[in-house]
Amino acid sequence: MMELADIINLEACPLNNVQFREACRDQLNRDGVLTLPDFLHQTTIDALVKEAESQKHLAFYTSASHNVYLTKPDPNLGDDHIFNRQISSSKGCITTDQIPADSGLHIIYDAPAFRDFACAVLGEDTLYEYADPLSSVNVHFAEDGKELGWHFDNSSFAITLLLQAPEKGGAFEYVRDLRDAGKGELNFKGVKAVLDGDMPVQCLTMTPGTLVMFRGRNSMHRVTPTIGTICRILVVFAYNAEPDIALSEAARMTFFGRLR
């Protein structure tokens, strides 16, 4: 089996280095996002793209409409209220159990060094895998026209790894700290300004092999439609701060089309 050093560029990203961890944590806390380009060796990128392409026929494709809060519409508000405005998202996804057992993705996800690094940067005591067999590591495919509409995350953080960029489009755009979910402040005015194109947004530059940690619970974000024949391939490493947590059955059916 491959060693972590065969997969991750530990010279560019020395996971066990205290100063490196502190710098990453400071950047995440300051900017709400951490990008680590050159996280993977080029040989790793090539191998993981080839692996993902070989499994793409197993992907479950979804096309859905939702509001930015990822909640059901509120019938007490009008159809034209920003809370009820519907946005489109579409992608293909393969699940943890569909990724080959010897994949470098499993090696990264399960490696104590990577999990300890993530804990140090995110300020978590421990990170646990999902209790269900589908949700811990997912590979997302966004072909021509696929997009991830504007939304806020329900979780406090997300960890992603870009494997392949499209010819055009597929840009990660965000507006930091647009709401305060902890206080129940939804900021309808600010959300409307973003959706109407009246507020400037930030764009995150990512090249293949870039690891991203993002705090999206209060920062609204989207991925613009992919353009061209090259599929955007993105890996999501999903962890929980508590053990024995499974993604809900409703969410599994929505995102994966099956429960197990």
From TrEMBL:
Pfam families: HalD. The keyword Hydrolase does not apply. Gene3D superfamilies: q2cbj1_9rhob like domain. Residues 133-260 form the Fe2OG dioxygenase domain. Transmembrane segments: none annotated. Keywords: Iron, Metal-binding, Oxidoreductase. InterPro entries: BesD/HalB-like (IPR056470), Oxoglu/Fe-dep_dioxygenase_dom (IPR005123). GO terms for molecular function: metal ion binding; oxidoreductase activity. SUPFAM superfamilies: Clavaminate synthase-like (SSF51197). Coiled coil: none annotated. Belongs to the iron/ascorbate-dependent oxidoreductase family. This is Fe2OG dioxygenase domain-containing protein.
